[in-house]
Amino acid sequence: MLKKAYSAVTILSIMLVFAGCSKYQRILKSNDFEKKFEMAKAYYDNGKYQKAFPLFEELITVFRGTSKAEDVYYYYAYSNYKLGDFMLAGYHFDNFVRTFPRSDRAEDAQFMNAKCYFLDSSEPSLDQASTTKAIYELQLFINKYPESPKVDECNDLMDRLRFKLETKAYNGAKLYYRLGEYKAAIFALRNTLAEFPDTRHREEISFMIVRSSYLLADNSIEEKKIERFEQALRECDDFIERHPRSPDVENAKSIKEDSKKELEKIKNLKNGVQEHKG
Questions:
Q1: Does domain 180-278 bear CATH number 1.25.40.10?
Q2: Distances (CA, A) of 258 to 56, 177, 236, 238, 264
Q3: Which of 27, 38, 208, 235 is the most exposed place for a label (fewest CB within 10 A)?
């Protein structure tokens, strides 16, 4: 008896699934576009974006140039967003603003365009083209809608994106340092400080510049040693002045003394050679 009950429930479930599928297929094939539009919205409102998407996609062409064109395209852009295709959604939100610039939804569409770039932004170790584009689009939104309630959210998103760029720059510079590519490390470390002056890594980066400058000088050919040790001295003085309470101050002072000794040794050697020649 129990098995029969289970069988009946199973059969009923299968019948309902097939009924639902056949209903959706009828809607897809229907030429009643008003009804199709209403069903597309119903599917969307119920979170059935996979079913709503192809309906809105077809209706874009059907209702182009009519009073429903704006509604259809707005839902279509959001369907892409809900399905996780952020690049395509961003494109359509941007196109919505261009197509319907006077729409009451233009502000939201412009924000969503920027947000889609934010969501498409990669991890710091990967390409940051979408990150840069997202910052640009968010700033564009703030400039265009300075009184929008979304401005605070835009600023928060931009802070998170800038931190991602900062992390990429910091990690890249530190990699040069670890690999012993001191000239490239100094260049990258200075760029990181210039682009992100408020970085939380400022003290660490500054000391890496000190140490890289010394090691670059120490590993240079004789003709460049004096110039580079003198630069290392300047970096030491700058670090000691700017970060007097840093745990690396004593290390900076030690590097400074070593740089002085190396300079003195080189100059004495040069003077000895000149006296010998004389």
A1: yes
A2: 72, 20, 11, 16, 10
A3: 38
